[in-house]
Amino acid sequence: MNFSFLPAEVKFYDYFEKASANLVEGARLLKNLTDNYENIEEQIAQITEIEHRGDFLVHEVTTLLPRTLITPIDPEDILRLVAAIDDALDAVQAVAQRMAVYQISDVKKPARRLSALILESAQELDFAIKGLRDKRQYDNIRQRIVQINTLENNGDRVLYDGLSSLVSHRDDLFEFLRWKEIYELLEATTDRIEDAGDIILRVTIANA
After folding, report:
1. Is the dihedral of CA 36, 184, 53, 15 positive or negative?
2. Which residue of 1, 116, 117, 185 has the fewest CB atoms within a 10 Å radius of its CB?
3. Is the Cβ–Cβ distance between 125 and 197 less than 8 Å?
């Protein structure tokens, strides 16, 4: 077995940054889908391609890790972080696919608001991950994580408002059920991003 030292250590940061940038791109495509709901299949295909790219990055990390004697952070945290970012991207794809399956014709305002929160959260996560290489950035990272938590809380409120609005029009059961699921998937995406942020916060505490 061939072992790597410093080059592999640097690569983990590279992979973290590639994964978070990929998530931002997926979130941007999702927001574009909800803001400009046309050419649906083409837009969903682009999101699916981004998700496949995320799977490849997870594979690269899990392949590199057993061959690395020295890692920049705890190996378990490395796995948790890339998995959490991938989970968020999977959630983005799930939202897009569900909108197609349910043959959505017009995107409701809460879905657009939640998509905007997802993109903002992904951008904050990307900023946080870019600071992991430098412990002097840890304070800034923690501020980013606080902002991610705030955005997730905002997502909870948007979900509540969206569900409340659906209940007031519950005479159409299919309309209620499909949008309830889509809203919940969107809000769950902010949860997955928050999960990744929590892992980063633990890393900064453990390595301060």
Report:
1. positive
2. 1
3. yes
State the Cα torsion 105-47-32-111 to the nearest 10°: 60
**How many domains is the chain partitioned into structurally?**
1
Amino acid letter, 172: D
pLDDT tens figures, 97-131: 999 999 999 999 999 999 999 999 999 999 999 99
Report yes or no: 145 and 58 within 8 Å, Cβ to Cβ: no
How far apart CA 206 and CA 103 sit, in angstroms, is 47
The CA distances from residue 76 to 9, 72, 91, in Å, are 14, 11, 22
Summarised one tens digit per residue, pLDDT across range 15-55 is 999 999 999 999 999 999 999 999 999 999 999 999 999 99
CATH of the domain at 128: 1.20.58.220
In a domain, 143, yes or no: yes
Percent of the chain having pLDDT more than 90? 84
Alpha helices in the chain (DSSP H): 6-35, 40-64, 75-101, 109-130, 138-167, 173-207
**Domain span at residue 177?**
6-207
Does some domain include residue 1?
Answer: no
